[in-house]
Design goal:
mainly alpha, 98 residues, 63% helix
């Protein structure tokens, strides 16, 4: 999770440096995966981060705020969709990917 959060920070920094746009840093790390309230906050704030950069970079958004991480198929799809968004942002901003 830490590398994922660091990549979000890199996107925020690049948005400011490359595009001159300041995005908010949202609290998505640390997250207590055993606490449903903590996971709910993570999902909501994480979705907001993706909405923030996606709208500016023209990356089509997906609903990544609703997932049951105990369901293997949902979890795998979530990780894939999330990775695709990070790849698109990285490519657009000249960053390396996770």
């Amino acid at each position: 999770m830490h590398a994922h959060y660091q990549h979000h920070l890199a996107i925020i920094t690049a948005m400011r440096e490359v595009r001159g746009i300041s995005l908010p840093v949202r609290q998505i790390y640390p997250v207590n995966v055993k606490d449903p309230a903590s996971v709910a906050i993570f999902l909501r704030e994480h979705q907001s981060m993706h909405n923030d950069f996606g709208a500016i970079l023209g990356i089509q958004g997906n609903d990544i705020a609703n997932v049951d991480f105990t369901n293997e198929k949902q979890r795998d799809v979530w990780f894939f969709i999330n990775l695709q968004a990070h790849r698109a942002a990285a490519e657009s901003l000249g960053l390396s990917i996770l």
